[in-house]
Amino acid sequence: MTQKELSQQIKLKKSFLCVGLDIDLEKIPPHLLQEEDPMFAFAKAIIDTTHDLCVAYKPNTAFFEAYGVKGWQSLEKTIQYLNKNYPDHFTIADAKRGDIGNTSTRYAKAFFEDLNFDSVTIAPYMGKDSVEPFLEFEDKFAILLALTSNAGAFDFQTKTIDRLPLYQQVLKTTSQYKNSERLMYVVGATKAEYLQDIRKIVPDSFLLVPGVGAQGGSLEEVYKYGANDQVGLLVNSSRGIIYASQQEDFAEAARAKAMQMQVEMATLLRL
Amino acid sequence: MTQKELSQQIKLKKSFLCVGLDIDLEKIPPHLLQEEDPMFAFAKAIIDTTHDLCVAYKPNTAFFEAYGVKGWQSLEKTIQYLNKNYPDHFTIADAKRGDIGNTSTRYAKAFFEDLNFDSVTIAPYMGKDSVEPFLEFEDKFAILLALTSNAGAFDFQTKTIDRLPLYQQVLKTTSQYKNSERLMYVVGATKAEYLQDIRKIVPDSFLLVPGVGAQGGSLEEVYKYGANDQVGLLVNSSRGIIYASQQEDFAEAARAKAMQMQVEMATLLRL
């Protein structure tokens, strides 16, 4: 998928919502545990009831990988289901990989070619030769961790290097990498005012924004400080949507929560 | 395994060698591709011929994950084989994970409990709450990326924050984390003289050192600047050992290369 197509989907659906699939077997409705593949059954139900309200899905690979071979099978089924039934949705493998040269190339092939994800999240710590292998694939994106929404973000990301916080150095340095037009960035909503500075460095890049809602960020502020003329935002919600109910009505409850966010987004997009 | 047991193994075998299992189907001897599970067949042969010369094995999970479900099966078989046949070897899942709270906990359980690895490599970018979940498991270790041996290491790791390079800030900050005695650090051999400064910050931690040989680092210098009174070093070699030959004699060739390193290590340990 191209960035232009993603922007078109956002305008069409009046939504820049990304639904995070952090599928925890201890949190999904107990009746699903009787299914042959509970993780996929849960993912499928969530996807089927929310697809018209969001433009992206983000399976968190850790939750799948935690179950070894079985988990990988569930992840494969989930991305195959998305690609087959909802090809207009942007898909994000939230894997937070980061390794050198040939290893990065392996990961890029696994996520982009074998699984056919549109994008994968990447850690910046190892620098250029850990990121560039992910940027060699046409219409595929690497989403780099810049400023995350957790408490530990203040350990290193906000510390100053050459008069700029590390996360801004990450934006500045990586936007000089080869094929950097295929980079997007993770920027936590808990510090929405930071988005102003971020937009000065990467005016055109899409930003994947976690931390709205549960972690305290305001959607209105994220839009105010973070949107560009192509919108340029994907706001992620995981637990707030997918665990809205742990009863048999979980899918409808997830839809209601997603709709609440989509309605708010539609209002912001009209401004 | 405890750090003390690891040190004992090093003294017993006169070796601080870690063999990296970066198993690339395009590089292993072609005759193995006829095996039912070529990755495991290769790993098993390398392990069986090198085990008495090394104290640790480090499967690089990317190479397995690149093959999806099949790759995970090969990884599971490899670690099960190690745990069953060579329980005195320290095992490292080179996964370079790094995510927040509940996701990190998932990964920690997957690698430490389900697969029973002794350790897993971790990226520091997300800070405290991405690292501490890995430190809650007794006799298990998180090996944090500090200073890697690739060219991109100079993009961020060596940049100065509060008068110290970022990688030293990582050492300093993380050594204050809860259960930090379960931390080890990746420090590339290509900058062996840096090890002096590193030892001032983490005198007692084990260091996992890649980049000797192929990437230009000197074993002698690594030992000179990096060893502590428990040795405290694991020097990794991957390609230099496992791809010593791509013919039918690959396992013997790998043994010869491993022995070359072990002999050099034995000499250093006598000093």
Automatic annotation (TrEMBL), chains A, B:
Question: What pathway does the UniProt record associate with this protein?
Answer: Pyrimidine metabolism; UMP biosynthesis via de novo pathway; UMP from orotate: step 2/2
Q: Could you give a GO molecular-function term held by this entry?
A: orotidine-5'-phosphate decarboxylase activity
Reply yes or no: does the keyword Transferase apply: no
Chemical reaction(s) catalysed: orotidine 5'-phosphate + H(+) = UMP + CO2
Q: Which SUPFAM superfamilies match?
A: Ribulose-phoshate binding barrel
Which Enzyme Commission number(s) are on file for it?
4.1.1.23
The protein's UniProt keywords, in alphabetical order, are:
Decarboxylase, Lyase, Pyrimidine biosynthesis
A Gene Ontology annotation in the biological process aspect, one of them, is: 'de novo' pyrimidine nucleobase biosynthetic process
Residue ranges of the Orotidine 5'-phosphate decarboxylase domain?
16-254
Q: Which InterPro entries match?
A: Aldolase_TIM (IPR013785), OMPdecase_type-2 (IPR011995), OMPdeCOase_dom (IPR001754), RibuloseP-bd_barrel (IPR011060)
**Where does the chain cross the membrane?**
none
> What Pfam families is this protein classified in?
OMPdecase
Q: Which family does it belong to?
A: Belongs to the OMP decarboxylase family. Type 2 subfamily.
Q: PANTHER family recorded for this chain?
A: OROTIDINE 5'-PHOSPHATE DECARBOXYLASE (PTHR43375)
Kindly give the NCBIfam families that the UniProt entry links to this protein.
Answer: pyrF_sub2
Protein's recorded name? Orotidine-5'-phosphate decarboxylase
Q: Which organism is it from?
A: Nonlabens marinus S1-08
Source organism phylogeny:
Bacteria, Pseudomonadati, Bacteroidota, Flavobacteriia, Flavobacteriales
